[in-house]
Amino acid sequence: MTRLARVPCTIVTGFLGAGKTTLIRHLLENAGGRKLAVIVNEFGDVGIDGEILKGCGIESCPEENIVELSNGCLCCTVADDFVPALDTILSRPGIDHILIETSGLALPKPLVQAFHWPAIKSRVTVDGVVAVVDGPALAQGRVADDMEALAAQRAEDETLDHDDPVEEVFEDQIACADLVILAKSDLLDEAGAEIAAARIAQALPRAVSVVRAAGGKVDPAVLLGLGVGTEDEIENRKTHHDDELDHDHDDFDSIVIPVAEITDPAALAARVEQAAAQSGVLRVKGFASVAGKPMRLLVQGVGTRVSHQYDRPWGTDEARRGALVVIGLKGFDRTAVEQALAPLSAAA
Questions:
Q1: What is the 8-class DSSP label of residue 25?
Q2: Cystine design at 50: which of 38, 40, 154, 166 (Cβ 3.0–4.6 Å)?
Q3: Residues 6 or more apart from 310 whose CB is under 8 A from it?
């Protein structure tokens, strides 16, 4: 099989809440005739990101072309999960392009390196690595919306002689990128955009384009067809973990909170904001059923920024069960989070 026959793959990486799923959904809705497939790597027990993409009725990427991996971070479980996922997708006829959404905790380099494996390299190639970054957070000097607690913890530990793990994950993702998307740019003024761009530049050892985006709306022609073949040059992209044979994500944890049917989306958003504001919490995301409404409510919270909107109708035979995934630093106050969201899990 020649190189031209290989299916191109775009790896979409980025920190928690940066906007990866929103970007991918826009790509699916504007595929320009391409037949797409998606591998979604979740962190936590509920496949929220996969559910956002599934059931949208997008002709370019039917539900069977979306494969969810929830057994851990893809860069750590690549041998167990990635090859079977590719086998599943490549068994579908006529796939033109594969999108791989990593978890917010994933390091792109081990995944790209896997494209050299004999079971993979003759069938697929890395069209490019796209890093999505949270513009407003970077403008405020953070890679996530609320990093004060982590900074305080790091300042108190005199034994640390390196950047905190969250910073390392962010910098490794940027270091491997062929294109950077500065997301939520509509929430930035020009000064904020310049600060965010400068922070990105600090992590970029080479010239890489930075594209501003709002609502994940980026022309697919900008994202797809880069033709980089990133696997052929990934060894030249230096990261914090180059000298490690393995790595783990013991610095992060997640819990799942069931959500009973609600009547007031604004009240739900207020509860999510309260939970997301707890020390060490990085992201809250999930779904809820609203009484009397045929549509499913999608809720996403990063720090004090909480959004909610109806994303699709509930299926005829689908149980209207809601759930929220809370992702945070290891040791975050689960009790405080559970108390903030407790009314949501009670019977309506």
A1: H
A2: 40
A3: 293, 295, 296, 297, 298
121 and 270 assigned to the same domain: no
Contact 258, 343 (CB under 8 A): no
CB neighbourhood size of 315 (10 A): 10
User: Tell me: the pLDDT tens digits for 214-267?
Assistant: 988 999 999 999 999 999 988 888 877 666 545 555 566 778 888 889 999 999
Do 197 and 328 belong together in one domain? no
* Planar angle of CA 301, 302, 303, nearest 5 degrees: 110
Beta carbons within 10 angstroms of residue 307's beta carbon: 13
Answer whether residue 159 shows pLDDT above 50. no
Pairwise CA distance, residues 318 & 276, whole Å:
28
Cβ atoms of 257 and 324 within 8 Å: the answer is: yes
Which helix or strand (DSSP H or E) is residue 66 part of?
strand 66-69
Query: Given strand 281-289, what is the order of strands in its sheet?
Result: 252-259, 322-329, 281-289, 295-302, 305-313
Number of domains in the chain: 2
Tens-place pLDDT, residues 38-76: 888 765 444 444 454 544 445 554 566 677 665 555 555
**Which domain CATH number covers 63?**
3.40.50.300
Residue-range definition of the domain harbouring residue 206:
3-236
Please compute the mean of the pLDDT values over residues 318-344 and round it to a whole number.
83
CB 17 within 8 A of CB 104: yes
For the CA atoms of 136, 140, 141, 145, the dihedral, rounded to the nearest 10 degrees, stands at -60
Q: Which residues pair with 305 in a beta bridge?
A: 302
Q: What is the pTM of this model?
A: 0.68
Do residue 282 and residue 214 come from a single domain? no
